[in-house]
Amino acid sequence: QSLYFNCGTTDFAKGEETKIDEIVSDLELLNDTAASWQLDIRGMADNSGTQEISEKISVLRANKVAELLTGKSEKLRAANQSIKPRGIGTNEGSECKVEFNVILIKQ
After folding, report:
1. What does 33-73 look like in DSSP terms, one character per residue?
2. 21-38: per-residue pLDDT in tens?
3. What does DSSP assign to residue 90?
4. Residue 72: left (phi > 0), alpha (psi -120 to 50), or beta?
5. What is the DSSP letter of 20?
6. Assign residue 60 a region: left if phi > 0, alpha if psi is -120 to 50, beta otherwise?
7. CA angle 41, 25, 106 (to 5 degrees)
């Protein structure tokens, strides 16, 4: 799943912020049913700016999403799970977005 941003900013593209509640619900369900998991939040940027700016904005986007997720859910704040935001800057095909990858950890 992805959340899109207005390019060059940390502002969500129109309609994207409404997806946060659905993502929180999905993660709470996962938290209730899976023994252990990790959420990798990857911030990305397009290639319209310098690499330095792209890296900075991708980190800010990932951190913003992580803070929103934990800010909306006591379960996610209290869970002994890892929510790991990171910026990856610009890669080939990168867009103004944040992607999620859930990793289930075997016990």
Report:
1. H-S-EEEEEEE---SSS-HHHHHHHHHHHHHHHHHHHHHT-
2. 999 999 999 888 877 888
3. -
4. alpha
5. H
6. alpha
7. 60
Structure confidence by residue, pLDDT tens digits, 38-91 = 899 999 998 888 889 989 999 999 999 999 999 999 988 877 568 899 998 886
AA identity, residue 85: P
Distance (Å, rounded) from C-alpha 8 to C-alpha 54? 8
* Rounded Cα–Cα distance for residues 67 and 4 (Å): 16
Nearest CA to 1 out of 35, 32, 36, 25 is that of 25
Helix, strand, or coil (residue 9): coil
Q: 38 is written with which tokens?
A: 């990790």
User: Burial letters for 51-80: b for 16+ Cβ neighbours within 10 Å, e otherwise?
Assistant: eeebbbbbbbbbbbbbebbbebbeebeebe
Q: Which residues pair with 102 in a beta bridge?
A: 39
Spell out the residues 6+ positions from residue 15 whose beta carbon is closer than 8 angstroms to its own: none
